Every structure is written in structure tokens, then in C-alpha cells.
Amino acid sequence: MDVSIIGSGYVGTTVAACLADLGHDVLNVEIDEDIVATINAGEAPIHESGLEERIAEHAGTNLRATTDYDEIRETDVTFLCLPTPQTDDGALDLAPMRAGAESLGRTLAEKDGDHLVVVKSTVLPGTTEEVVGPILEAESGRRIGDGLEIAMNPEFLRMSTAVEDFLEPDKVVLGASSEGAAGTLRELYAPILEREETDLVETDVREAELIKYANNAFLASKVSLVNELGNIAKEYGADAYEVLAAVGLDDRISDRFMRSGLGWGGSCFPKDVNALRAGAREQGYDPDLLDAVVSVNDEQPRRLVALLAEHVPLEGARVAVLGLSFKPGTDDVRKSRALDVIEHLRERGAEVVAYDPVAIENVRPDYPEIEYADSADAALEGADGAVVATDWPEFDDLAFDGMANRVLVDGRRIDVDRDALEVYEGLTW
Ligand SMILES: NC(=O)C1=CN([C@@H]2O[C@H](COP(=O)(O)OP(=O)(O)OC[C@H]3O[C@@H](n4cnc5c(N)ncnc54)[C@H](O)[C@@H]3O)[C@@H](O)[C@H]2O)C=CC1
Ligand SMILES: O=C(O)[C@H]1O[C@H](OP(=O)(O)OP(=O)(O)OC[C@H]2O[C@@H](n3ccc(=O)[nH]c3=O)[C@H](O)[C@@H]2O)[C@H](O)[C@@H](O)[C@@H]1O
């Protein structure tokens, strides 16, 4: 099938490379010329395991990138993989979606033959049919159901395992405006749907949109719940990891997403939970539980720093912050809990020396005044205390000999040699 993908960030690039791998002819349409050049050179514009080799294999044959929307006319299906950021007050910002839909609609006005537009970006219920659809109709001069079809197909991939998640998903959710559109998407995804482990969910567009938010809200809530249980466990002097490992044996609960500690960050959970809260309020419903999910999450970095302060007077102390990315395996620092830890440490007068295996350059522009070390050992050298903010596997081998005080507060339950420390405190254990 001839497929075009508008937006070539984390999702658009992964989807493009994977669909090319499944044998489709794929065109990435992207406004960033550097990304376009990178893909056409057979390289990956983002770091994801398995991505670079797929782009290298398909670029120049059945994968191509362009800044020119007109080339979309050579394709049958277009996926919108545009950003859906949050506004200053936490609501969903649809400006990039509107701009992309306008450009696409104008292009389709000149196209012969039918076209299917699929929203893959995370958008609130109603966006596909009440915002994107009308823009496409107005700009293309076509009507939905007459030469133009529309569908919503949310994406559940995680950063750092994006390729594997896309090609081997638990579920594919298709919300389509017509049986024809659903059929086209089933055909496109055929090799993935043939896997026994993949469930196909066919639904209306509005449900497809909400499934994505419900999924992320559920996962974020699960982590906030384990964090609240972990905070309570800590007060009782109990180990939350032992408690939750037992709880997770109940298959109604499952043992996944049960790691308590510093909480959730990243480019999606924070913005999606906030967009759903703002959307719910707009609909006249107060999402009290989701409000609490966010406030528990917001408290964890402050609790971590308060725990360190019980062992190290923070004013003037040199504190090593180990890990800056929002989770291991990525250099993404958007809404990383590590940044909140740094803020709280600095508010209390500590001098921060930070280390991360890959994310330092993404933090430095916003925090030019803190010190950066080029290894965990260097960060720990002379430190009066240390905190773990990201569970990078290399932190399991930390050595503490160089520290002025061997005090470590662990926000991620890494597997360190606790006997090598004077003080080891887990945030929730
Ligand atoms: N990052 C992730 O792990 C996941 C993200 N999502 C959702 O997918 C959507 C996209 O997210 P990401 O790929 O992370 O965003 P991103 O910010 O990494 O990529 C978006 C790309 O779109 C490009 N772009 C912006 N306006 C454009 C336009 N008018 N025409 C062409 N290109 C344009 C940008 O230059 C950028 O390269 C969001 O709604 C997000 O919530 C869903 C699942 C996973
Ligand atoms: O909508 C999205 O963009 C994506 O958001 C998340 O994926 P991602 O943000 O890449 O990362 P996760 O692995 O889900 O981790 C999110 C945060 O939760 C934290 N976390 C996760 C699991 C856990 O047990 N404990 C915990 O604190 C991580 O440290 C991280 O900060 C979802 O897992 C994906 O399904 C979804 O597609």
C-alpha cells in the first residue's frame, strides 16, 4: 500500500520504518529539513533500538522523506503523527494538528482518487470528527464518505522499545468512519494482526480516541497508587517492593507497572493526564481521582529530597544526582522527575553535580549553572550525598569510596551494594 506519514518524530519515524518493513511504500512528510535529510541518508533521527537498521534497509527503496506535501497525492492513506502538546494551563493544544490538516486538505484538493486520513496522534474525543474532519473537508472540497475517509488509530508504543512495541503490540485499535476505512487499515496491519498475541479492537472514532487517554491515565494512576502505597509502607518501616510483588501475583492486578519510587515523567503521561483532566472539566466533570494521581506524582521528588535532608544538611552540600532522563534507555528529559529533584535540591541550597549516560546535553541548556560529571564515579567523588533519579542498569555497579559521606537515597530501587554505604535509604522501602 502507498502510505504517507505527516510528522516524523518518535511516532512518525517509527511507524514509517515499521510499515516499510512490512512491505508498504512509505513517504514521511516533515517540516524539519534535517530530519528529512537524515531519513533519506538512511539514518535514524531518533535513538530507538532496531530503528536505524530498518531505515538503512528501506531508505531509497520503499521509504522516503520529504518536506513537500504535494507528494502525498501519490499515496492512498495518510497518518497524522503530529505533536499534541499541552497549553500553559494543561489543556490539549491542537494548533499543530490544525496546521497539518489544513496543509493535507489543500493537497488533497488536487488529488485524483479516494484518500483515507488516519489520526494517530493522541487527541481528545471529538477531535478527529469535529476538528480534523471539517478542516479536511473545507480545504479539500471533498466530503467524508465521498472520496475522503477518516479514521483514528491510537498508538501505544513506549520510548526505548518503540519498534518492538509497534510490530508486536498487545492490541491494535481502529476507530473508523466507514467499513471501507476499517478494511483498508486491517489490510495495512495484516502481518501484525495475524499474530496470535495481537487483539484487534474495532470501534467508533470517539471510543478509539478515549481508549488512548484511558490507557495512559490507567498506567499513570497505577504508578501513583503504588507510590502512595510505597509512601505508606515506608512510614510503617515495610518494604513496598516485597508487598507489591505479592500483590502483583493476583492476575487481576498483574506484576507490571508496579515499581514505586520517584514517579512518572516523559512526553506523554504528564500531558495526556492533564489534557484528560482539562477535557473532563470542560465537559462538566471534576476528575478528583486524576487530580490526586498528579499530586501524588508531584510530591515524590520533594519527598526524596526531604529524605536526603534527614541525613545530610543540604545548605552548601555537594549532592550527586544520578540519572537525568525520564526513564532508562532514552535521552528524553521532558518532565523528567530528575529535574524536579534538582529544583528542590537547589531551593535548599545544595550544589548539584549531575550525571547521566546519554541525557546531559538535553539538560545543560536549561540548567547551565549546575555541574555535570562524565561518569557516575566522577559525580560521586567528594559528594556529601547522592540520589538516584533514573534506574540506568550501569548504576547497579556504583562504587562509593570517593564520597565525602557515603549516603545514598534511591528513588528507583536500583541493585546497589548497600553494605558499601553508611546510609542507604529507599524512597518507598
Ligand atoms: N512519543 C511517544 O512515545 C508517543 C507519542 N504518542 C503521540 O503521538 C503524537 C506525536 O508524538 P511524537 O512523535 O512523540 O512527537 P514529536 O514531537 O517527536 O514529533 C512530531 C513531529 O512533527 C513535525 N511537525 C510538526 N508540525 C508539522 C507539520 N505541520 N507538518 C509536518 N510535520 C510537522 C515536527 O517537526 C516533529 O518532527 C502525539 O500526539 C503523542 O502524544 C503516542 C504514543 C507514543
Ligand atoms: O502515550 C505515550 O506516549 C506512551 O506513554 C507511555 O510510554 P513512555 O512514556 O515511553 O514510558 P513508560 O515506560 O510508560 O514510563 C513512563 C514513566 O513511568 C515511570 N514508571 C513506569 C513503570 C513503573 O512501574 N514505575 C514508574 O515509575 C517511568 O520511570 C517513566 O517515568 C506508555 O507506556 C505507552 O504505552 C504510551 O504509548
UniProtKB/TrEMBL annotation:
The keyword Thylakoid is assigned to this record: no
Family assignment from sequence similarity: Belongs to the UDP-glucose/GDP-mannose dehydrogenase family.
Reaction(s) the record says it catalyses: UDP-alpha-D-glucose + 2 NAD(+) + H2O = UDP-alpha-D-glucuronate + 2 NADH + 3 H(+)
Residue numbers binding NAD(+): 84, 122, 271, 334
Protein's name according to its UniProt entry: UDP-glucose 6-dehydrogenase
InterPro entries from the UniProt entry: 6-PGluconate_DH-like_C_sf, NAD(P)-bd_dom_sf, UDP-Glc/GDP-Man, UDP-Glc/GDP-Man_DH_C, UDP-Glc/GDP-Man_DH_C_sf, UDP-Glc/GDP-Man_DH_dimer, UDP-Glc/GDP-Man_DH_N, UDPGDh_AglM
Keyword Acyltransferase: no
Binding of substrate, residues: 212, 257-261, 265, 327
Domain UDP-glucose/GDP-mannose dehydrogenase C-terminal: 320-416
GO MF, one annotated term: NAD binding
Enzyme Commission number(s) from the entry: 1.1.1.22
Species per Swiss-Prot/TrEMBL record: Haloterrigena salina JCM 13891
Enzyme class name: oxidoreductase
SMART domains: UDPG_MGDP_dh_C
Pathway where this protein functions: Nucleotide-sugar biosynthesis; UDP-alpha-D-glucuronate biosynthesis; UDP-alpha-D-glucuronate from UDP-alpha-D-glucose: step 1/1
Residue ranges the record marks as coiled coil: none
Pfam families xref list: UDPG_MGDP_dh (PF00984), UDPG_MGDP_dh_C (PF03720), UDPG_MGDP_dh_N (PF03721)
GO terms (BP aspect): polysaccharide biosynthetic process; UDP-glucuronate biosynthetic process
